[in-house]
């Protein structure tokens, strides 16, 4: 596999005005501003193989957007080197951007008041796409995303999900080698989410497009890829398979128990009590101990009268939350 | 051609809001009429200013109005630059394989100003008919170059304003001094102002080059050598160079800092 | 109830304070335009005075106009215009507050805040300029008091006229268009484009019968002594009547517009 994206020692600093707080803050800010330096990216290194789908995850403000902006040539890093498909994105911009497509989740690239198809035609000219190639591409996108009825309508009449479909199509009209998706499923309903995920997988398969997506929805990651890059506080914290992380937490189980009668106090050897309300209690396995159903039943029925219980693994969201906590990324 | 397509798209967009479009055009024309009425009222009371009659002054107004309206109609994207930054549209333009300037010219075309262009031309014509000038080829050329120079200088000012908005997004009112100030100022012969104002608007921002100086040449008045007045529009166009450099530097800085 | 309006007022003030650069450049702009206009009208006036309106008075008139710039121009509160145009105004119906009063307070707050932030530096600098260009002291103490009173009424009148922009925005859904139209009419007829004393006298007589000159022309002319105390008092009375009329009509119009919006469902 050839490496298509390489990030070497990329650093990015921002100078932002610092707001004072307190009684006279508004006045003080009015007369004199303080600035502070923010290190949005600290020595970021990673590489991505051609044809991969990679999930780029991290809490808000971790540096995801900055990375995407650097990769798409909008921002120049303070120091460091970045080679994408043989180009440095912020140099020879016009040549480079022909190879990429970008979808910024909540910002549209289509015209608000004119039919979507007209915007597509404009993009065709902007990217100098040949007529027959354009036709083929449009046909393919049309079938995959079911755009037929959306294209003649102005963007402002479309629902959020329909807009996203059109955005995706618009960023792929020129068949880019690399596609950057910044939160593509944000705010979408369940059905559209599935459609978008299927489409991303499909494009990756038929065109071999390299796709980098940022998201807060771990189900996107589960559905699309096994490769994740975790960023926090401007640093890469993990770069590898999602399964490895999942396995790390696979031992942890959550057990919910229903008792025949309410108990005042509940204590169970070897298990951690998370919550307890009258006759329902939730336990967690202790670290590095495996869960055995039989042992659990034996242990609990010694003192308590139980009716029912259920055992669950951590959800992907919980795993992510655990991961953030481990790296102390949680906002205080 | 790509630009043609941009124009088509803008017409389509504008037609979606006919009432708004009509009202805006009407408002634009009203502002314009009010300004001309104000000038007319002054001349009603005072006849001449520094030897210039109402119609002499009206030609100044005609040039300023027309050139401002033309520039504001077609280079609106530069005017909206701070908005493009705020809404992230600039980022979008940067990921497209077409030059930023081309895209900015296409980004917004303000058709509501078309009425102003037409009125500006009408005013110019009325003034040209009524002023006391013996026309010859050279004079016609100077007058035409004055219009071109006007568009270039105003566009250059927009470039500067757009460039500044990269550094501070709040500072737009400051640009009013330059842009609207030079508009208002240029309605009247520049020599009536304080000498410092005159110097600033001749040498730093060459407003004089597209109205006072070429018109002095047409009317054969003023104390500045006639040949200098005649070529002043050409000199004024040089203003574009530093402004363009500044804008391009600002854009590079934007890519350094983002939003 | 009173508290609600006080806090709306405070919010506007705080909002205005956020924009430091805007205020500073605003002051610079006003100052520049002031000088420019004074030069311009001096060139026109050439002789020392026109029907008793002297160059010194003209300079003061211009500087007052620049200092109280914000109070002179009817407009529309940014968020109000936007809300009406995109239909979000219907959310406001859920609040227990009279919308006319809210918009009035909001806009008054915005105008007052931007005036209070800017007028002092302009007045101070303008007073220090050489004679013909300077802002002079008010002719006497009584005139000064009347100036303050008429300026307050003028500011309120400006806001009550601005309310018509809000009404027209309901009708047209184009805040920018309507605001420009209302402001331009008010500016021309109120002496903000060309000072009224410099207009032909026939026109001046007509303008006396319209509300617009009571926004700023009246207070400024009382200050410079172009209008005598007795006349000033009478005209203040007239401006109060205009204020009342515009508020009543504005309230009726907006009530009407709101009713229609509710029926149509926003």
Features:
heterotrimer; B: 259 residues; 0% strand; globular; C: 266 residues; mainly alpha; two-stranded antiparallel sheet
Could you walk me through the main structural features you see in this protein, from its secondary elements to its overall organization?
Chain A has helices spanning 25-31, 64-71, 93-97, 116-126, 131-145, 160-172, 190-207, 218-224, 242-248, 293-301, 316-326; strands at residues 3-18, 34-49, 53-57, 79-84, 100-104, 178-182, 210-214, 227-232, 235-241, 253-259, 271-277, 280-285, 306-313. Chain A is built from eleven helices and 13 strands. Chain A starts with a strand and ends in a 6-residue tail after the last helix. Chain B is mainly α. Chain B has one domain. By secondary structure, chain C is mostly helical. Chain C has one domain (2-264). In chain C, strand 1 and strand 2 form a beta hairpin. Chain C is globular. The model of chain C has no long low-confidence stretch (mean pLDDT 87). Classes of the chains: A alpha/beta (332), B mainly alpha (259), C mainly alpha (266). Chain B binds chain C through residues 17, 19-20, 23-24, 26-28, 30-31, 34-35, 37-38, 41-42, 44-46, 49-50, 168, 170-174, 176-177, 181, 184-185, 188, 192-194, 197, and chain C through 19-22, 25-26, 28-29, 32-33, 35-36, 39-40, 42-46, 50, 172-174, 176-178, 180-181, 184-185, 187-188, 193-194, 198-200, 203.
- Molecular shape of chain C: globular
Q: In terms of quaternary structure, what is this?
A: heterotrimer
Q: What count of domains describes the coordinates of chain B?
A: 1
Work out the number of β strands of chain C.
2
Please give the structural blueprint.
The complex is a heterotrimer of chains A (332), B (259) and C (266).
Chain A: E1 3-18, H1 25-31, E2 34-49, E3 53-57, H2 64-71, E4 79-84, H3 93-97, E5 100-104, H4 116-126, H5 131-145, H6 160-172, E6 178-182, H7 190-207, E7 210-214, H8 218-224, E8 227-232, E9 235-241, H9 242-248, E10 253-259, E11 271-277, E12 280-285, H10 293-301, E13 306-313, H11 316-326
Parallel strand pairs in A: 3-7, 3-8, 5-6, 6-7
Antiparallel strand pairs in A: 1-2, 1-4, 8-9, 10-12, 10-13, 11-12
Chain B: H1 2-15, H2 18-46, H3 54-74, H4 76-79, H5 81-87, H6 89-94, H7 100-107, H8 114-130, H9 137-167, H10 172-185, H11 195-204, H12 212-219, H13 226-237, H14 240-257
Chain C: H1 2-17, H2 20-45, E1 49-50, E2 53-54, H3 55-67, H4 69-72, H5 78-86, H6 99-127, H7 141-172, H8 175-190, H9 201-207, H10 217-224, H11 229-264
Antiparallel strand pairs in C: 1-2
Helix pairs in contact in C: 1-6, 2-3, 2-6, 3-6, 3-10, 5-7, 6-7, 7-8, 7-10, 7-11
